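User: Predict the full complex structure for these chains.
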Amino acid sequence: MLLGRFAKRSGTSRSARGFAKPLPAIQRMEAMRTSAKQNRRIAAAAASVFALGFVAFVLWRGSGTIDAAQGYLMGSIVNITTVRNPLKKSPTADSLLQQFEAVGRKCEELWNNSPASDTELTAFARQIAEETDGAFHPGLKALINLWNIESKDGSPPYVPTASEIQAALTLCDWTDDSALHFGAIGKGAMLDTAAAFQTDNPLSFPESMLLDFGGNILSLGSKTLGKPWRVALRDPQGGGSAGIFTLSGRYFISTSGGYEKYFIQNGISYHHIFDSRTGCPAETGNLLSVSVVTSGQDHAGALGDALSTAAFVLGYAKAIPILEAHDCAAVFLYKDGSARAVGTVRQILTLTESYRWYK
Amino acid sequence: MKRMDWAILGTALLLCFGLWALLPKTGNTLVIRSAGKTVMSIRLPTDPAQWEIRPGVIAETDGKRVRMQSSTCPDQLCVKQGWVASGAVICLPERVTLEITDGTDAYAY
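Assistant: Here is the predicted structure of the two-chain assembly.
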């Protein structure tokens, strides 16, 4: 529209070009009128530029500002990023973090002391354990304490003998309340708790939030101006990323891999994901990690966390029917740089040059 | 007067460009946090550099990557993590994170 107006007037303005010689009175008056016109036009153009700038600024600020905070919970780092809407008095990232940490510390205490009293999570964990035939096993407390890979109380990890492992395995029964350990489902369950904040208090909780709980991701809504959240999937080999998730809406991403927590003794690497059949870290061959993406399922966070562990232990072929039964998307990363997709994961995940899709 | 029109348009474009140039760059940023508080957030310097976060806890950058050069923590997991080109080096005991962000909002692992 702006350009259209300039074009229409350029016919008269061309005649007013070049006043080197003195002009007759009528022409001089004509020239003065033209210069007044010019001034008006410049003023109009300047006003338009400022108006456009103002509108852009209001749209930009009005769509919210990014606010982030970092904290610690259950031995992991928590990063919360949120979009604060100036019109809605959205809570700060700091206050969301405090809310999350407060609930998290209660859960941690409960799960450490009497996990079975969290009846809902216990029932859900047992259900997934049945379905995966123990590939996800919530009753490995004796085994986890025996290996001590997380160096609780500062004592070093320990490679147990075969008979010690057998003795511990007899205690590993997920139907036994005293054997329960929520290490492979707790973080995902905490993401469910955070997502429930929003469902329960839609007015006081922001529409958009990205929660990173020790590498387990919950996304809600989108970034400013409707842009999706960008979440990099860490490359288990080397310091870069294996791919980028672009997320708009509610997604949970849980990753299980042998590269996250491990120790090396006599040249052998021992990681933290146990195979309940052997009592040792799962032998996964070329498989580096499994990331499971869930969204609207019941207990979606806990489900993704438990199934990523099960899928890592089982491998691609055996995990497929379980992942599909729960309508999960997933990506399996391998040492040779290949990646296998399950479900619709390729719609939200773009691989970097370090990895390529299988086939 | 066509020339004047173009001049106005040009000025407007220049103004927009100037405003755009003032907006934060989306290049790699180095963020160092200690106990949850951001102590440093700068564009990743192209020359190698060292950053002492507190006595004995030293981060190092090489223009593209960051690592924990030394730390006073008992497990030294952060030092063993080595160089990281995108994502974070995390020292849990010291509650220090070194992060290189390239426009991503979080890291899944």
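Confidence is low (pLDDT under 50) at residues 1-18 of chain A.
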